[in-house]
Specification:
The complex is a heterodimer of chains A (352) and B (200). With 352 residues, chain A is mostly helical. Helices cover 53% and strands 1% of the residues of chain A. In chain A, a hairpin with a 6-residue loop joins strand 1 and strand 2. The chains are: A mainly alpha (352), B mainly alpha (200).
Chain lengths: 352, 200
């Protein structure tokens, strides 16, 4: 029967904590005392079993939250080791989803822009076109004035020009897209501008009576998109010469003729043309500007007729969404989308 | 296997205020800390609380770390905390480990962290549960001494300092604890027959 002292020796012997003399004593007993040897072997295997206990898996994480760390720092009165938590717009777990969505959108938008091609050459904007026409008109009017005084344009040719112009205008009004033209109140009519243009020419015997809508001093320069509008018009007795034009009776809108009417002899013509003017223009100050408005109106009528021949959306459609996105930019967007997607995938895999 | 150099970088960063680095150390050693707490306390809930408390204390004392093995430093904190808990329990009338909160729901040691076949896992689980039962049956001072010395690799002197006893007392407690464990395990023949067959 072993004593506590014997077990102390065995334990110390197993730990290598005995002196040389004690170790010699133990080894002697091991050779001569089977019970002592069996107990020593039993203790050795017991210690091995205990030491062989594996490391366990923690049932949860013991990481500290920032708030915990800040509380500890405050408690200890030391400078916070942990930076205060930053507010997040989105929980961290949603970031990969947001990033993936952003990359997908970049790629899709870039691909769409690339597939639909570069932006169509935008139609000259009505404002710029009108400005250009008005400028031409001013130049041409000055030239016309000079030519009129020098070459004595005949009434027939003048009437023919007017007729052609008004016919085109009528055509424009009947076929051109309605939204193309905007004519606010206080803007000059084509008839008025024609009338003013005629006044600049040497006036032969009047042979035609025109019904015009004249609004003296109404403008026509630098206009934005224009469209027909029911402006009141004024019938003007067709005195083409002299001071006959100075008194222009007004006519209510309800009495406006709506079409060109010419008697058989062609001596009297009545027409009503919805004038084409720009929105918000300043009134022209003089007849030359009115004449410019006339030419501008005719020019616009030409352009409107041309526009009417083309598909309407080519003129009227608002700028396409991809307008201004060059293929290079589209490729850049796609590349950025791919890079972002790759980074998202890499970060997601690393997080897992 | 993390090296002390890896630990040192994280420790230095944590001392500069990088909580993420400190938490990286926590994640690296939380299994070891929990295991020691579980071996000493014998049941999972108190062990989990003790491990959490140990990491909080480690954060408090982070600036006191002066190099060496961070794992040993951390496990010392775990052991000291658990031993304080055991001493507190010992002063109470019912100081048995079975009376600790959650002990009645403990169905044995958690699974080992290494992977194995289901049969091996079952056998290991039974053997570990038997050893843990025997550990739990030891007086708390003997259990703490045995775990510190045989499981954690403390020296006699370190155990003596931690448990605040003389060196001879440590040796004596260790000897009694080993003998008690041997008797306990020998009684579980169905599990350890092969281990103790040498006697027959």
């Amino acid at each position: 029967m072993l004593t506590d002292r014997d077990y102390d020796l065995i334990s110390d012997y197993l730990d290598g904590a005995l002196t040389d003399a004690q170790r010699a004593t133990v080894e002697s007993r091991l050779a001569n005392d089977p019970e002592f040897a069996a107990e020593l072997e039993g203790i050795r295997r017991t210690v091995a079993l205990v030491k062989g206990l594996p490391e366990l898996v923690a049932p949860r994480d013991f990481t500290l939250s920032r708030q915990q760390a800040l509380d500890i720092d405050r408690e200890l009165g030391r400078t916070p080791l942990a930076a205060p938590p930053r507010p997040r717009l989105l929980p961290r777990r949603f970031l990969p989803l947001v990033s993936a969505a952003a990359s997908t959108m970049l790629v899709l938008v870039g691909a769409l822009a690339l597939l639909t091609g570069p932006a169509r050459t935008p139609s000259p904007s009505p404002a710029s076109a009108i400005a250009m026409v008005a400028e031409d008109a001013l130049t041409l009017t000055k030239q016309g004035d000079e030519q009129a005084t020098e070459s004595q344009m005949t009434e027939e040719s003048a009437l023919a020009e007017i007729e052609q112009s008004t016919t085109e205008t009528a055509f424009e009004e009947s076929e051109a897209p309605a939204v193309m033209m905007v004519r606010p109140e206080g803007t000059p009519t084509l008839a008025a501008t024609q009338d003013m243009a005629l006044r600049t020419m040497p006036q032969p015997t009047p042979t035609a009576q025109m019904t015009t809508a004249a609004q003296a001093g109404v403008p026509s320069t630098a206009p934005p998109p224009i469209a027909p509008s029911p402006l009141p018009q004024t019938d003007v007795p067709g005195g083409m010469g002299g001071g006959a034009m100075d008194s222009i009776p007004s006519q209510p809108p309800s009495e406006r003729p709506t079409d060109i009417a010419m008697d058989d002899s062609g001596a009297e013509m009545t027409f009503s043309v919805e004038p084409l003017t720009a929105v918000g223009d300043e009134p022209p100050a003089d007849a030359a500007e009115s004449a410019a408005g006339d030419l501008f109106s005719s020019r616009m009528a030409d352009e409107t007729v041309n526009a009417a021949d083309a598909p309407s959306d080519a003129v009227l459609a608002p700028p396409a969404p991809n307008e201004g996105i060059s293929p290079l930019v589209a490729l850049g967007m796609m590349a950025a989308g791919f890079v972002l997607g790759a980074l998202t995938l890499w970060g997601w895999r690393r997080q897992r | 296997m993390p090296t002390p150099t890896d630990d040192l970088e994280l420790i230095l960063a944590a001392q500069r205020g990088d909580l993420d680095s400190f938490n990286a150390l926590v994640l690296r050693y939380q299994n070891a800390a929990y295991s020691v707490a579980y071996r000493l306390l014998g049941e999972p809930f108190s062990a989990s609380d003790a491990a959490q408390e140990a990491f909080i204390n480690a954060y408090r004392k982070l600036h006191d770390f002066r190099g060496g093995s961070f794992k040993a430093w951390l496990l010392r904190i775990v052991t000291n905390g658990v031993y304080d808990r055991l001493r507190y329990e010992k002063r109470r009338p019912a100081d048995s480990i079975e009376d600790l909160p959650g002990a009645e729901t403990d169905d044995g040691a958690p699974l080992a962290s290494h992977s194995a076949t289901p049969e091996q896992v079952a056998e290991q689980r039974d053997a570990q549960r038997a050893i843990q039962d025997c550990l739990g049956g030891l007086p708390s001072d003997q259990r703490a001494t045995l775990v510190m010395f045989d499981l954690e690799g403390y020296s006699y002197q370190e155990v003596a300092e931690t448990t605040d006893v003389q060196l001879g007392t440590v040796k004596s407690r260790l000897s009694r604890a080993r003998l008690a464990m041997r008797r306990c395990l020998e009684g579980k023949q169905e599990l350890f027959a092969d281990v103790f067959r040498f006697q027959e």
